[in-house]
Amino acid sequence: MKYEIGISGAVIVSAHNRYRPFIGSVGVSGDRIAAVMEGKLKKEDCEVWLDADGKILMPGLVNGHCHGDMTLARGLGDDLTLLEQNHKFADTGWFYTLIDDEDRFYSRQLTYCEALLSGTTFIMENMYWGLGEDSVRAMKEVGIRGALAEDVRVDFQRPDAFISEQFLTEFIRVCRENGLVPVLGGISEEDYDTERLKRIQAIAERHKILLTCHLAENTWRQDIVKKKYHVPAIAYLHQNRLLNPGVIGSHVVYASEDEVQQLAQTDTKVVNTPLCEMKIQDGIAPIPEMVKQGVTVCLGTDGAMWNNSNDIFREMKGMSLLHTIHKGIRSLKKTDILDMATINGAKCFGLENDYGTIEAGKKADFILIETRAPHMQPMLLGEMETVTSALIYNATGRDVTDVFVDGRQVVADRVLQTIDVKDVMEKVQKVSEKIGRALSS
Prior knowledge:
alpha/beta; Urease, subunit C, domain 1; TIM Barrel; 9-stranded mixed sheet; 17 strands; 39% helix; hydrolase activity, acting on carbon-nitrogen (but not peptide) bonds; S-adenosylhomocysteine deaminase; Metal-dep_hydrolase_composite; hydrolase
């Protein structure tokens, strides 16, 4: 069989064999992986042949929670909690008045460029503002795969003013026609109301789309729910039958043992952003307990204002070290961490049959990582393998050399092949300077 693309002699790491690395090759035909084999591929068996000696081949990473609009504000939220940021920046109104849809478009594109170049092939964009078809175009032009979460509210000031059925139907159509996952963005705890939440769930179920919401992220939002309903957020949602397999809870920092069981029993998905939770002092989520109970947990970065980075490799290391010091050195296994970055991300969006592992028949979304660098060496295979350790503790997104999405090489030798990154950076820089001047005046 002749493959359109052959990746030869890589160290392959994937959940399908529980991350036991082996030297092998991948053959791609169209947008699918046609074959995965041990050993090397012959050049004559491939239309395009890439020598991957010295590189790791693994599934593209999944970023399950991101706000691309906030890349404009990278670094502006340092040394402030989320509540303090809300108080400090609310009076300036910069987020509403200083930036327009074009600014947001390029902010998102810069986010997706950063993500692809650091090995993320699927990203969930939690949109503060829907940009119509430009929301799709921002992803498609960069070449990343993803999900778009359209906020159910017309604006943040009116929690009961929902987008129209016609608008939502068109949003879903455009997403699906372009290979993106449409998601309905729910509300945070300060706007919780039982009937309002049931209306939102009914909309998601009627349109057969996933529902995402910020959930149990911090103490002040938890206190709002406790004061109003006398139970914390997760317990409140469970009491009202608002947890289910189609719900993706973001952050989920504060969950009791009973609430973790409720998440597991209802197959509610969780996206945790460990570096963000640390940076803005949200807290430490009970991730080891969730994993033990069988909750599907994946990783996200949140927005660059609250994290500064959209690199999932950093999140893997952060997740591991945070819970090592908090719950013990064996509280999470390396396989748990790699699951969160790959197959669990696919499961969160109902895509595990097509993505998340390196197997024949799945979509050809994978990345190559350079290992011939001092910080990645030495590296062992076999019984005492250190490849998985290197991926979690040594590697960063800067070690990614090549990225494939749908069988298309969108990053080649660390260079994005789709759009001019320099041009996007220059546009975002000008907007960020405008924001900085406004905040300092």
